[in-house]
Design a protein that fits this description.
Elements: E1 16-19, E2 24-29, E3 38-43, E4 48-54, H1 57-61, E5 68-74, E6 78-83, E7 86-91, E8 97-100, E9 111-113, E10 118-124, E11 133-139, E12 144-150, E13 154-160, E14 165-170, H2 174-178, H3 186-191, E15 198-202
Antiparallel strand pairs: 1-2, 2-3, 3-4, 5-6, 6-7, 7-8, 9-10, 10-11, 11-12, 13-14, 14-15
């Protein structure tokens, strides 16, 4: 181990991403209870944080929150973070927020796919707790929501740029696994895999195996 970096008062640390153009890491830092989340840039050579962007959830969404989880980086220093319950795009060089995307929740981990130029997130429809979970597809250049696809219990997308397939894990509860609760996951309702969970695979319309 080369060293450590402390984040006093943080409510934890979440998804990091490497920025090859700047030679830095970005990491999302939840705020303490009643505080604000932030995005921190870390220089691995000096082992220090050299830039911090505070995310003002109250100003951006109308509701105070300390929540921030995933971060992904697209070309032209476009960042997407899952914060305040929504996907938020911003300029990594200046911290300027481009868009709060409210058609889908921000979920947990997020992903940028260089094969199709899109960010992928998972979260409830319109970011409303209790709505059906969705896979959200976002144009990374223009910060626009292109599509949402229902996938109950799916989360943490990742993409394979060689064929642009997108994969998500589909989690079930202990009660579903034990058979004491109904399996409402996409694994069961669309593919008949009950009580197991699965990995859901999504593809573009021009690919024969669509799911």
């Amino acid at each position: 181990m080369l060293g450590t970096i402390a984040f006093p008062g943080a409510g934890g640390l979440e998804q990091p991403v490497w920025d090859a153009a700047l030679g830095r890491f970005w990491i999302t830092v939840p705020g303490p209870a009643g505080g604000t989340p932030s995005i921190v840039r870390v220089d691995p050579r000096t082992m220090k944080a050299d830039k911090t962007y505070v995310v003002d959830c109250l100003a951006l969404t109308g509701a105070a929150s300390a929540s921030i989880t995933g971060v992904a980086l697209a070309p032209y220093q476009h960042l997407l973070v899952s914060a305040c319950g929504f996907p938020i795009t911003l300029n990594a060089l200046t911290g300027t927020v481009y868009q709060v995307i409210k058609g889908v929740g921000g979920g947990d981990e997020v992903w940028y796919n260089p094969g199709d130029g899109r960010f992928y997130v998972t979260g409830p429809l319109n970011g409303v707790t209790g709505n059906v979970q969705q896979l959200g597809v976002i144009d990374a250049e223009h910060s626009t929501l292109l599509q949402t696809v229902p996938e109950m219990r799916g989360k943490n997308p990742a993409a394979f740029p060689e064929n642009n397939q997108v994969l998500t894990i589909v989690q079930i509860t202990a009660a579903i696994a034990a058979g004491t609760a109904t399996d409402d996951s996409v694994c069961a309702t669309q593919f008949g895999y009950k009580g197991t969970g699965c990995i859901a695979v999504f593809a573009h319309p021009d690919i024969d195996d669509k799911r």
